Structures are given as C-alpha cells and as structure tokens.
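$ ./design --mode recover --in tokens.txt
reading tokens...
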C-alpha cells in the first residue's frame, strides 16, 4: 500500500531544459516542413490550374475547330443535297416527257396496223404490194423501234432516279449525323465549371470499338459527296441523251409519217386516174354496144326485108311450074327467077347472116368487156374508199409532238 502511494520520479533541470529545446526544435522542424509543403502545394496547384486552364483552352479551341470542320462538311453536304434534289426533280420531268412520248406512239402504231389490215381488203389486181404498203410497213418498224428505244431509256431513267435518291438518302443521313454531332459539340462548348448539369462519368474516357479515325470520318463524307457528284453528272448526261433521243425519234416519226402520207396521196391520184380511164373506156364500150345493137337490128331488118322478094320469086316459080305441056319451058324468065332466089339466099345467108352472127359475137364481147370494166371500176372505187376514206382520214388524227 505504501508502494502504491510512492511519488513519481523527478527529472533533472538539465533534462527539463533539453526536453524544452527538443520540443522547440521539433516544432520548428515541423513548421518548416509544413511551410515547404504549403509552398509546394501552392506551386503545384498553380501549375495544375495553369495546365488545366491551358488544356481547357486547347480543348475549347479543338471543339471550335471541330465545329467549323463539321459546319464546313455540313455546308458541302447541304450543297450536294440541294443539287441532287434539284437534279432529281428535273430528271423526273424528263421521265414524264419520255412517258408522254412513249404513250404518243401507241395510237399511231394501232392506226398503221389498221391501215395495213384495211388494205388487205383491196380486191383483184389492186391487192398489190405498192409503195404505200412498203412505207406503212416501214412506219410500223420505225414506231416499234422508237417504242423499244423509249422503253429502254425510261428504264435507264428510273434506275438513275433510284441512284439519285440513294445518294440523297446517304447525304441526308450524313447531314443528320453532322447536325447531331454539331449540337453535341455546341453543348460541350457551352459547358463551364459552373454549369449545373455537369457530372462524373466513369466510363467516359473509354474508347469504344466503334470509334473511327478523323481520316475515316473525312473519307466517309467525301465518299458521299463524290457519290452525289457522280450520280448528278450521270443524270446530266442522261438528260442530254434523252433530249437527243426525243428529238431524233420525233424527227424519224415525222419524216416517215410524211413519207406514208405522200405515198397515199400519190397512190390515190394513180387509182383515180386509172378509174377515170376505165370509166372513159366503159363509156366508149357502152356507146359501141349501142351502135352494135343498132347494127344488129338493121341486119335483122335487112334479113326480114328479103323475105318478101324471096316469097314472090318462089311463088312465081311455083306458079310457072304448073305451065302445061310444052309451055313448061326453061326460058329466060325461069332462069332469072331461079337466079333471083339464089342471089337473095346468097346475099342473105352468106353475107348478112354471117355479118349478123359476127355482130352478135362482137356484141357479146362488148358486154363482157362492159362487165369487166364495171367490175374493175368497182375494185378501184373500193381501193379509193379504203385508202382515201378509211386510211387517210384515220391518219389525220396522228399528231407528232417533240416532247
């Protein structure tokens, strides 16, 4: 118990003095280290602040440069988009021209085919492979060739429109991405330390696998621009081709149509001339027929007129044959009466009757010729009706326009 109440040991004054000096030295040393740390910290903070400000300034400058770069390419893409949209609209009008031109060929082709079919109804010798038919066949071939050419050109135009729209779609998609990227960079450029919606993003510095290099980024837009330029140039060339085709096909159709019309007019004139000549021949034959009929009537009358003298002469001979005995003499009277009967018979039977038979044969020939001429005139009239009324009037509705 006495030990427990024993007083603590006492230090020597020298020890106390040393201890105080050590405390002072330790404190001074700690203070010096702290001051160096504070100085180093301030210097470090100042350096970090300067580095941060410099980096921020550099980043802001890079963002600004990037914004300008995006704006440049966005403007390029906008220009190309405007050009390709305008070119597509113009090409659509050319497509309409092609469609109208193609449609305008259908009715003339039907008319040509109807003309050829109608002309098969010509009869007799008029069913001839004449210049009109030759030109009609040629016109049908021209129209069929034009329809085939316009059809192929229309297909080519539809394909070019599709390619133009594909280039337009690529430009629009690129522009949409550029617009989004510009909006994001504008937002990034507006951020400051005091912006309220700034936050930590742990994975922000991680570079994903779908990042592209700046070169690839430029190449992508450049490819879209070049694609648009290529399709626009192709479209311009196609429009020039369409212009030439429409002009040439219209000229070919117009030229061949006129060739057919000229052939029709010439043929109608030829047929009318032939018909007129046949009608003149028919009139001549009918006049000759009337003359022959009068001649036959006169011959028959002449034969009839000779019956009286024959009867008188034969009656006289019959009466003189009853003379009695020696009076039945072959005198000059008897001789002359017999001669008269023979003479009348000879003149009537051998000459007049033969002439009558010949005249009747000629009359039959004239009537056959009349029927033949009337039939031929009817054939010519039928040909004129087909060519002048059916075909030429039908062709008046053909109008060739250079669309």
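writing sequence...
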């Amino acid at each position: 118990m006495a030990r427990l109440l024993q007083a603590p040991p006492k230090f020597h004054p020298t020890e106390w003095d040393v201890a105080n000096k050590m405390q002072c030295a330790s404190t001074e040393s700690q203070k010096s280290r702290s001051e160096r740390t504070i100085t180093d910290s301030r210097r470090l903070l100042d350096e970090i602040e300067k580095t941060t400000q410099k980096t921020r300034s550099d980043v802001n400058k890079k963002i600004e440069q990037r914004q300008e770069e995006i704006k440049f390419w966005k403007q390029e893409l906008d220009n190309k988009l405007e050009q390709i949209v305008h070119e597509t609209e113009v090409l659509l009008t050319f497509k309409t021209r092609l469609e109208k031109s193609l449609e305008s060929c259908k009715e003339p082709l039907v008319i040509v085919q109807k003309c050829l079919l109608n002309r098969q109804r010509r009869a007799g010798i008029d069913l001839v492979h004449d210049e009109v038919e030759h030109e009609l066949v040629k016109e049908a071939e021209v129209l069929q060739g034009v329809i085939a050419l316009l059809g192929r050109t229309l297909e080519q135009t539809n394909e070019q429109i599709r390619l133009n729209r594909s280039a337009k779609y690529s430009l629009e998609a690129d522009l949409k991405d550029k617009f989004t990227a510009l909006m994001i960079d504008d937002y990034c450029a507006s951020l400051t330390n005091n912006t309220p919606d700034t936050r930590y993003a742990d994975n922000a510095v991680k570079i994903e696998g779908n990042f592209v290099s700046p070169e690839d980024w430029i190449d992508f837009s450049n490819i879209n621009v070049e694609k648009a330029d290529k399709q626009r140039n192709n479209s311009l060339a196609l429009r020039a081709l369409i212009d030439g085709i429409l002009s040439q096909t219209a000229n070919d159709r117009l030229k061949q149509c006129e060739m057919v019309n000229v052939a029709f007019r010439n043929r109608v004139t030829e047929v009318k001339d032939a018909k007129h000549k046949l009608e003149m021949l028919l009139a001549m034959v009918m006049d000759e027929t009337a003359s022959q009929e009068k001649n036959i009537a006169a011959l028959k009358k002449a034969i009839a007129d000779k019956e009286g003298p024959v009867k008188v002469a034969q009656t006289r001979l019959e009466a003189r044959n009853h003379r009695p005995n020696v009076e039945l003499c072959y005198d000059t009277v008897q001789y002359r009466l017999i001669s008269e009967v023979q003479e009348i018979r000879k003149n009537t039977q051998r000459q007049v009757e033969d002439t009558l038979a010949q005249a009747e044969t000629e009359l039959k020939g004239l009537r056959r010729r009349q029927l033949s001429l009337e039939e031929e005139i009817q054939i010519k009239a039928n040909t004129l009706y087909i060519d002048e009324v059916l075909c030429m009037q039908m062709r008046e509705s053909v109008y060739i326009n250079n669309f």
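exit 0
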